[in-house]
Specification:
By secondary structure, this protein is an alpha/beta fold. Helix content is 29%, strand content 19%. The chain has a 7-stranded mixed beta barrel with strand order 21-22-23-24-27-26-25, surrounded by 4 helices. It has a 6-stranded mixed β-sheet with strand order 7-6-3-4-5-20, with helices on one face. Strand 1 (14-17) and strand 2 form a beta hairpin. The protein starts with a helix and ends with a helix.
Length: 642
């Protein structure tokens, strides 16, 4: 039987385990990336392991989230990251050099390699034929130290593309179409391979948009073939030597095949407050727009920006609209400037923001109260924009520009002017903002500089055979990591200060949670389906652990968050009977007995203080059980666990 692209890469990087769906496999990791919102904690964890030098082929730290330096906190963290990476063999991408996924696709991604990053949109690398996973910072730290990355062997989905996109219909619309088909949890437990004759019509930046948005499906990762389109992109970046061809075998077997005819797609839009709340743009043409934001790791490539400039040339945005444009990298910004496209963007009335994540992570440019904001981003979760009642829609750059010009949500296919933009034959290459690490002999004496905002990594508790804990919080379906641990300009500067950060935990759901959790001592959270979807931020596990949370019982979990809970020493449990969720009341006392044998059997019995008894499942591998009994992955690793 033939193999899929992902199966081929897994087979060539397999450290242990059997490539059987549902079994645990350990993979050798070639590359790692971190970003500053999660990276500070990842390097603190790496230092705790006591390993002097990273053991990957290539590791890099990007600064792209916390770039606003309103106080000393972010500047101190950036200085820490620059010095700790120099000491331990990691490259450092300076603030302003660009968004991690955009820069990595341009300059460092290699077909056929494995990559994990402390950011959930690391699967963007699949656009260039990498097997790229979002992961918690601790998993990244272990990989930098030479450890394997453990995942459950996924199912294989294939999206078979035929036809060609019509003018003003885009890769973003392909992403929204697959979200409409599968939903935000339809890709859980699967790797999505994009294939078919339509693939050849998509550029690498377009492919990157699609694999980036695959994260919103809950997929383990997404991947495209490495073909002549890939070769041309790498050659234009001056690194054709990194090209290797990759394709699935003709007799490869998939668990599901989805057919999409690109020529039949229309511009789509995700309505508040979920990426899968998708309708046709044409159905909302009477909705007034207050704000438009173009950028993010989804749609900030040179190809996207050139189309934006072409549509804005000689025009002025509507007087009622505020438009921001964030190029994805310094390379993109410089090339826009050199060819005159930047002048076309600025002359339209747009505001130019830094080459960073910016509004996507809530770092500025929040909409007005109740304002309608069209964004070329990947998430529109409630409150993520920084405005609690902001109405955020996800769109393509073409729909964004068309709407900014009219002041209303506008179908860009109604524009009669042709849009002819081509990828450049050669990109401007200048990696001066990427600092190499110190040589090993100099690194030994190098000093790591820490500011007062960097606090000690919190300590977790090993599990014993019984636990009595208070049900501190009960929440519903699709609770995101933004609900658990919000982002934004007010909070992100404290990512390396867990005690301070804990004040904001579950602020969106219940502002009293931190105080009540601390008072409870040991606590349990109960959630609905798809608990923990969204970002890979391990703070959504570390902060609850710091507040005394020992377990989470949910109807189902998002993959990365479940792994982060285990890494933090929190036991993820799933209702054996989902109806039992309704019987539980907040503040109940829950007792779990025979934890050690129950973990091994995969079934635990929980008794509430009203004598209501129910069962939960915990499908843990032997390694995960050892991690929990040790009190988390950091303790387990320090004790010599593999």
């Amino acid at each position: 039987m033939g193999k899929t692209i992902a199966q081929k890469i897994i087979a060539s990087h397999l450290v242990s385990g059997e490539m059987k769906t549902g079994s645990e496999v350990a993979l050798r990791i070639d590359q790692t990336l971190t970003q500053d919102a999660t990276g500070t904690m990842a390097y603190l964890e790496f230092e705790t392991m006591g390993i002097p030098r990273v053991k990957t082929e290539f590791s890099i730290a990007y600064v792209d989230h916390n770039t606003l330096q309103c106080g000393f906190e972010n500047a101190d963290d950036h200085r820490y990251l620059q010095t700790v990476t120099a000491k331990h063999g990691v490259y450092f991408s300076r603030p302003g050099n660009g968004i991690c996924h955009q820069v990595h696709l341009e300059r460092f991604g290699k077909p056929g390699k494995t990559l994990i990053g402390s950011d959930s949109h690391t699967p963007t690398g699949g656009g260039i034929g990498m097997l790229a996973f979002g992961a918690g910072g601790l998993d990244v730290a272990v990989a930098m130290g030479g450890g394997a990355y453990y995942i459950t062997m996924p199912k294989m989905f294939k999206v078979n593309l035929t036809g060609k996109l019509r003018p003003y219909v885009t890769a973003k619309d392909v992403s929204l179409e697959i979200l409409r088909i599968l939903s935000v949890k339809g890709g859980v437990g699967a790797i999505i391979e994009w294939g078919g004759p339509g693939v050849a019509t998509l550029s690498v930046p377009e492919r990157g948009t699609i694999t980036n948005m695959g994260t919103e499906l809950g997929a383990t990762t997404s991947i495209f073939p490495s073909d002549e389109v890939t070769r041309a992109f790498l050659a234009a970046q001056g690194r054709e030597q990194d090209y290797v061809p990759l394709s699935s075998d003709p007799d490869a077997v998939y668990d599901r095949v989805i057919d999409i005819d690109l020529s039949t797609l229309e511009p789509l839009i995700a309505c508040p407050h979920s990426p899968d709340n998708v309708v046709k743009v044409s159905s909302l043409n009477n909705v007034k727009v207050d704000q438009v934001c173009i950028g993010s790791c989804t749609n900030s490539s040179l190809y996207d920006m050139l189309k934006v400039a072409s549509m804005l040339k000689g025009k002025t945005i509507a007087p009622t609209v505020s438009l921001s444009v964030s190029p994805g990298s310094r390379q993109v910004l410089r090339m826009l400037s050199d060819c005159g496209a930047l002048a076309d963007i600025l002359s339209s009335g747009a505001r130019l923001l830094e080459c960073a994540c910016g509004p996507c992570i809530g770092m500025g440019f929040s909409p007005n109260s109740g304002g309608v904001s069209l964004r070329t981003f990947n998430r529109n979760f409630l409150g993520r924009s920084g405005t609690k009642d902001g109405q955020v829609y996800l769109v393509s750059p073409e729909t964004a520009v068309a709407s900014a010009l009219t002041g209303y949500i506008t179908d860009p296919t109604t524009i009669s002017e042709p849009l002819n933009v081509e990828m450049p034959k050669t990109f401007l290459v200048n990696d001066s903002a990427v600092l190499p690490p110190l040589p090993a002999d100099l690194a030994e004496q190098a000093q790591v500089l820490r500011g007062p905002n960097i606090k000690e990594f919190p300590k977790s508790k090993p599990f014993t055979d019984s636990l009595t804990a208070q049900l501190v919080l009960k929440v519903g379906d699709n609770i995101t990591t933004d609900h658990i641990m919000p982002a934004g300009a007010k909070i992100l500067p404290y990512r390396s200060n867990i005690p301070y950060l804990s004040k904001f935990c579950f602020e969106v759901c219940d502002p009293t949670f931190p105080e009540r959790a601390k008072a409870a001592g040991d606590g349990i959270i109960v959630g609905g389906s798809n608990y923990g979807q969204g970002s890979s931020r391990e703070h959504a596990a570390l902060v609850p652990m710091y507040l005394g949370i020992r377990g989470v019982i949910a109807k189902s979990f998002a993959r990365i968050h479940a792994a982060n809970l285990i890494n933090a020493g929190i036991l993820p449990m799933t209702f054996a009977n989902p109806d039992d969720y309704d019987a539980l009341k907040q503040d109940a006392k829950l007792t779990i007995s025979d934890i050690v044998s129950g973990m091994e059997a995969g079934v635990l019995t929980v008794r509430a203080d009203n004598d209501f008894t129910f069962q939960v499942t915990c499908n843990l591998t032997a390694r995960q059980r050892k991690i929990l009994l040790a009190g988390g992955l950091l303790n387990y690793t320090k004790e010599g666990g593999q």
